[in-house]
Specification:
four-stranded mixed β-sheet; alpha+beta; 9 helices; single chain; about 240 residues; four-stranded antiparallel β-sheet
């Protein structure tokens, strides 16, 4: 397992095994342009964008949650009945006010209620047969794969994260952002400081949580600088189209 896979994949919503098995996957041709960040980690090209079940992956690393939930696919099946939602846990009883002596009581704390199992695990696999409705849902997921590849091919800087909405920076603005981002990552003390520094330079769309992820991966700034300078050298030599 790669370092990136170990870092990024567990933070996204897991694709159900049944979705992976029944919806299979689809791959796009690789591209070497654009910049991709996943949970603040810079992914080096080339980029092979894939759909695996209901989510999008790049170089076999998950970059989104489920684009369309597997439950929506199951809902297209004739006679499908969604699992009943577990009853809400009763509100804890209000304890009587404690005296000073009670604060040092050695009695064990109450055990927390057992966690409910996810619906899929609780009810087991559900029969699924592709139809027109499920095909339309699958098309939406594949459209997300195609769009991701197109953005990278066109030179966008793409930030995907499990804690925030994706940020797609068009090439015209991306060039200026890349001129300041790696050094700002290197010098920022924390995510708030990085967000403030980028805001002052004219990039207010770089949110605090995104900047926190970037600062956690500040060592990547060297790879970003190398790639940035390589692109500029290719442009100087007329090697870019």
């Amino acid at each position: 397992m790669s370092v990136l896979a170990a870092f990024a994949a567990p933070r996204f919503e897991k694709v159900p095994d049944q979705a992976l098995e029944l919806l299979k996957g689809a791959r796009s041709k690789s591209v070497s342009s654009g910049f991709l960040f996943v949970n603040g980690h810079y992914v080096k090209p080339s980029y092979r964008v894939s759909r695996m079940g209901t989510a999008i992956f790049v170089n076999d690393v998950q970059i989104t949650g489920q684009v369309v939930p597997w439950a929506s696919f199951l809902a297209t099946q004739d006679g499908y009945v969604p699992p009943a939602k577990p009853a809400a846990a009763p509100a804890p009883k209000k304890k009587a006010e404690k005296s000073v002596d009670d604060l040092f009581d050695d009695a064990p704390a109450e055990s927390p209620a057992a966690e409910e199992k996810p619906a899929e695990e609780a009810e087991g696999p559900v029969a699924f047969s592709p139809n027109a409705k499920s095909g339309a849902l699958l098309k939406k997921v594949d459209e997300a794969r195609i769009e991701t590849r197109r953005r990278l091919r066109d030179g966008y800087v793409c930030f995907y994260g499990s804690r925030y909405a994706r940020v797609l920076v068009e090439p015209r603005i991306a060039r200026g952002l890349l001129d300041v981002l790696p050094e700002a990552m290197r010098d920022a003390k924390n995510g708030a400081a990085l967000a403030a520094a980028l805001r002052q330079k004219g990039y207010p769309f770089m949110g605090r949580e995104l900047c926190e992820d970037l600062v956690e991966n500040r060592a990547d700034y060297l790879e970003i600088v190398r790639r940035r300078e390589s692109i500029k050298e290719d442009e100087r030599l007329g090697l870019t189209r």
